[in-house]
Amino acid sequence: MESKKRRGILDRLNAGEVVVGDGGYVMQLERRGYVKAGHWTPEAAVEHPEAVRQLHREFLRAGANVIQTFTFYCSEDKLEISGNVSNISGAQINEAACDLAREVANEGDALVAGCVSKTPCYVKSHSETKVKAIFKKQMDDFLKKDIDFFIVEFVDHVEEAEWAVEVLKTSSKPVGATLCISPQGDMHGVPPGECAVRLVRAGADIVGINCHLDPLTCIRTVKLMKAGLENAGLKAHLMIQPLGFHTPECNHTGYLSLPEFPFALETRAMTRWDVHQYAREAYDAGIRYIGGCCGFEPYHIRAIAEEVSAERGFLPPASEKHGLWGAALGMHTKPWVRAR
């Protein structure tokens, strides 16, 4: 199926459909041995395309409607600071990541989202011209590959996200913008409601939250964004792609400040049942783009797809190997397990 014949992201959301996003990449690939913790750069798209392709494929099988390019922290300034690669350019990574995402998306009815994230340049220089030039360079790489829409993700200053949206909207493609902020607001204290208003006025078609904090906390923040838009008389679709770990502390800087970050977060991992609850609460809050970020494995995405299967009208392929609500336990040889 050619991507141009597919219904776009706004066609789907405007029709009231639930769009299931994919899960986390950098943390999942770090655990698999393809990403170096610390700077979390995505050179694996060039060095180990088979690993990225397989994770894309697992998210698609789990029910994802969107395959994001593995381009997190792929600005030239971030790659230079990381020192992880000296012979691979950001453009090479961006283009390879687009090819991998499109290859897998074409195996199903999925769209490809070209993703940009926060830049070291913003904090270092606070130069709108320099930051926008970085986003423009990334956008040009993505446009060569004709991605379906853009996502601005993992930005903790709304001003930088505004600049990214303003650049990406010049492409005439839809833009989603997600901030990694808490209910208390961005790193400059801008409240979530005001953040949403500023993003929509900058041109974002979809706004929401990703990463840093657990799903139920992120839902609280998206609700504040929704209220801000309503109070301003603005409309936009809502999206959420939270952290896959419990963060009851609800600290302003999220899981980055936890003593377990990044190598001992397993004890905070969400179960599939936690994700069922998250997906239902997100849907009930009016959020129609529901996915995950760091910590979200394919089985978590399957849990989202299964929870909203009635609304979508189908189950994902991966449910062929999963009994709903533990039904497969009925086949266990031990009676006390069957009783569950």
Automatic annotation (TrEMBL):
Which SUPFAM superfamilies does the UniProt record give?
Homocysteine S-methyltransferase
- GO molecular function per UniProt: betaine-homocysteine S-methyltransferase activity; zinc ion binding
Cofactor(s) annotated in UniProt: Zn(2+)
The entry's free-text remark on the cofactor is: Binds 1 zinc ion per subunit.
Alphabetic keyword roster: Metal-binding, Methyltransferase, Transferase, Zinc
Would the keyword Methyltransferase be found if you checked this record's keyword annotation? yes
Under the heading Pfam families, the entry gives: S-methyl_trans (PF02574)
Subunit info here reads: Homotetramer.
State what protein this is by name.
Answer: Hcy-binding domain-containing protein
